[in-house]
Design goal:
By secondary structure, this protein is α/β, with parallel strands linked by helices. The chain is built from 18 helices and 11 strands. Helix 9 crosses helix 13. The N and C termini lie far apart (91 Å). The structure holds adenosine-5'-triphosphate and magnesium ion.
Length: 484
């Protein structure tokens, strides 16, 4: 009170000094939510929306999406991958001195020679040409350098699921960047999109008409196979078999190879997703009710193994939706390596903690359900196992989040990879055709920005590759020991 009075006095003092008309308080603009005139608000308002209104909004979005997606496509309307320059190749992909690289090309006219935009300008190569060059260097070059990434013979591809039920934490970006860096490194990569939002599918230019172009028929086939073997037992007991419906009969004809699509990356293939895949979340529980002993969690692994997919690739990345539904459970159960992206914020840390809690209760209840029967029949008990589980810090801003990240690191210990994937403007801004740092042409950016952005994703990949190589080595040694 006294203070307010004092201020008034001071103001009066100013008035006297100026000797003009009484001064008004300086005009502070009102917050935008004050003084909204009801009639003006009404005048701006459109009619109430009906269900059909959603269809209209969806149509507009679809048109805009088509427009955006059509920009920069090649003549056949497909995505195309940019070329790679000598600078980039010798710095990131085949690390040799540029002069040596040029000498080797000159001495081997059969090797791809690259194209240049100007007479005598920098030479650019397509990725499949880079892969051929790498094979040449691997065969002829220094044995001390690893031109081709480590992959022990005879072991199946490693499956990697990227999951967190929190949305927008960087699952798809992490999975897509890892897939691309593994491909640049020379691995044969398969990407499986389990998210009906289909972001991963659109990053890799996939075109999926309906659920029959997704993993759905593979899961259906696994269930149909289960039903058939149950039916054989029923018939042997003298009971009538349960008929397979049209969906299940159709699914029995489909092989993973029918669904695997090529992408604009020569060594990345895709099983895409589409909105209808969400239907699986309703269908799977119906099958589970009908066939109580169906091992849903084995479906993806069994089918991929049966169809030879695990031998045809080195690494399989599975992108999952922001939910712990049946599809995610399937992806998680199939995975050898589980990556859980999260940002350095309280809400993401909190939510991720609860995600691990839900993983525990979900898989524990599956194990318990199975093992009651297994114990009764004297069969081996079910116990899920993952080669490695890592939380990956994404969209990290060192200036703001250092303390939070350190705290999370301290609590999560080795579960959290120490490498932090920085927030970078190079992601997300590039638009529909170019997704992330590996597809961007470095000439579009300041070179230092590019190098920094690329380094952060290279570091994420390096950390992932250490896990992969270590796990494969562990298995290779175990296999050798078992063979002795
Ligand atoms: N390192 C990064 N730097 C800057 N932006 C990023 C980075 N990683 C991801 N983003 C952006 O954050 C947003 C969410 O990323 P993303 O789509 O990968 O998350 P998600 O977990 O897959 O989301 P959803 O739960 O919807 O599937 C995107 O707009 C993406 O471009
Ligand atoms: Mg996603």
């Amino acid at each position: 009170m006294a203070e307010a009075k004092g201020r008034k006095t001071a103001a009066r003092g100013r008035v006297e000094l100026r000797k003009g008309p009484p001064a008004r308080e300086p005009q502070v603009p009102l917050p935008p939510y004050f003084n909204i005139a009801p009639d003006a608000a009404l005048a701006e308002l459109e009619a109430p929306l009906t269900t059909a209104g959603f269809a209209e909004i969806a149509r507009s979005c679809a048109q805009g999406r088509e427009d955006l997606a059509a920009r920069g496509l090649d003549e056949e309307g497909r995505k195309s991958l940019r070329l790679f320059s000598t600078w980039e190749i010798t710095r990131y992909l085949i690390p040799v001195a540029t002069a040596h690289f040029r000498r080797v090309l000159k001495a081997n006219p059969d090797l791809p020679q690259g194209i240049s935009e100007t007479e005598g300008g920098a030479k650019w190569f397509a990725l499949d040409e880079v892969l051929r060059l790498r094979a040449h260097f691997a065969a002829e070059g220094s044995k001390a350098k690893e031109y081709r990434p480590y992959r022990p013979a005879g072991l199946p591809a490693k499956m990697v699921a990227v999951a967190n039920f929190k949305g927008g934490v960087g699952k798809t970006s992490t999975a897509a960047h890892l897939a691309m860096s593994a491909a640049l490194d020379g691995y044969r990569v398969l990407v499986i999109d389990l998210d009906s939002q289909g972001s991963m599918t659109s990053i890799f230019g996939g075109r999926v008409a309906d659920e029959w172009g997704t993993v759905f028929p593979l899961l259906a086939r696994h269930y149909a196979g289960h039903l058939q073997s149950e039916n054989r037992l029923r018939v042997a007991r003298g009971d009538p078999p349960v008929p397979l419906d049209e969906t299940l009969n159709e699914a029995l004809k489909i092989r993973a190879g029918d669904l695997i699509a090529k992408t604009h990356w020569p060594n990345i293939d895709l099983i895409g997703a589409q909105l209808n895949l969400y239907w699986a979340e309703f269908q799977i529980p119906v099958w589970r009710m009908q066939g109580r002993s169906w091992k849903l969690w084995d479906a993806l692994t069994d089918v991929l193994a049966e169809d030879g997919v695990l031998d045809g690739y080195d690494v399989i990345f599975i992108d999952t939706p922001p939910a712990l539904g049946y599809l995610t459970i399937n992806g998680l159960a199939a995975a050898d390596i589980l990556l859980v992206p999260l940002g350095a914020s309280f809400l993401e840390f909190d939510s991720t903690g609860r995600f691990f809690d839900m993983l525990h209760s979900t898989f524990r209840s599956i194990e318990e359900g199975e093992n009651i029967a297994a114990r009764a029949l004297g069969r081996e008990e079910l116990s899920f196992e993952w080669d490695a589980v890592r939380a990956v810090l994404t969209r990290y801003d060192g200036a703001q989040q250092g303390e939070m990240a350190a705290l999370m690191q301290a609590y999560m210990g080795r579960t959290m990879a120490p490498e932090r994937q920085d927030f970078t403007a190079l992601i997300g801004q590039a638009g529909e055709q170019v997704n992330g740092i590996y597809e961007a042409d470095y000439r579009d950016f300041n070179r230092d920005t590019y190098i920094r952005g690329r380094e952060t994703f290279d570091a994420t990949y390096a950390a992932f590759k250490r896990l992969l190589v270590g796990i494969w080595r562990r298995e290779e040694l175990a296999a050798a020991e078992a063979a002795e």
